[in-house]
Write a sequence for this structure.
């Protein structure tokens, strides 16, 4: 009997671990779908009503403030409210950006839809690869952290000193970094490195948002404005 118990116990633990991982993955994608839909509605409202752009500094302050709230409440019922507050706010800020591209670029609608299509295909492809390959991308963690911080600081420099070329380079960096972050975060969920679906949802949402806006900037660079 002792021998059988020794054999069965690891299998039970493995099964429980697998069930927990599947639950986190399922909850993450359910919440991500809901937040993306809510964010799209907010973007549509701000676009339709031609609401004003809040400016980069207000957007950054609002983003980091709400992101802090999400991380402080992620383990409580308030976490869901914080997530929707963050994604709704980011959706609002997206509306005026879309309006600018549509009005400033002759074929702005096509640029927006192309950026959206590339973002969707990229996310689905990278997520499917991370899930089906069984690989873990934890080795990318340090590189992504340094790369995102560097790109963010360079973006601030480009904004302050009005350097379009540097701004475009930063957008290119963010496209690559966000693709890597999608792989990394999905791999962490699959392998149990990320057990909080609220944290996972926010990370993937921010990756998608930055990927989309960076592609918009790159695809719209031919516009005179």
């Amino acid at each position: 009997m002792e021998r059988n118990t020794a054999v069965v116990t690891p299998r039970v633990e493995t099964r429980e671990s697998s069930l927990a991982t599947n639950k986190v993955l399922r909850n993450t994608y359910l919440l991500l779908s809901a937040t993306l839909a809510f964010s799209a509605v907010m973007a549509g409202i701000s676009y339709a009503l031609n609401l004003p752009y809040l400016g980069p500094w207000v957007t950054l302050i609002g983003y980091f403030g709400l992101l802090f709230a999400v991380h402080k409440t992620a383990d409580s019922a308030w976490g869901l409210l914080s997530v929707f507050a963050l994604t709704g706010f980011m959706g609002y800020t997206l509306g005026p950006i879309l309006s600018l591209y549509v009005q400033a670029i002759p074929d702005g609608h096509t640029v927006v839809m192309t950026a959206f299509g590339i973002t969707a295909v990229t996310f689905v492809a990278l997520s499917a690869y991370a899930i089906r390959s069984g690989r873990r991308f934890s080795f990318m963690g340090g590189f992504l952290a340094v790369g995102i911080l560097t790109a963010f600081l360079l973006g601030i420099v480009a904004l302050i000193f009005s350097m379009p070329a540097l701004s475009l380079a930063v957008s290119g960096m963010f496209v690559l970094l966000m693709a890597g972050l999608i792989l990394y975060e999905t791999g962490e969920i699959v392998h149990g490195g990320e057990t909080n679906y609220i944290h996972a949802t926010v990370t993937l949402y921010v990756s998608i948002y930055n990927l989309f806006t960076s592609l918009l900037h790159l695809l719209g660079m031919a516009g005179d404005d």
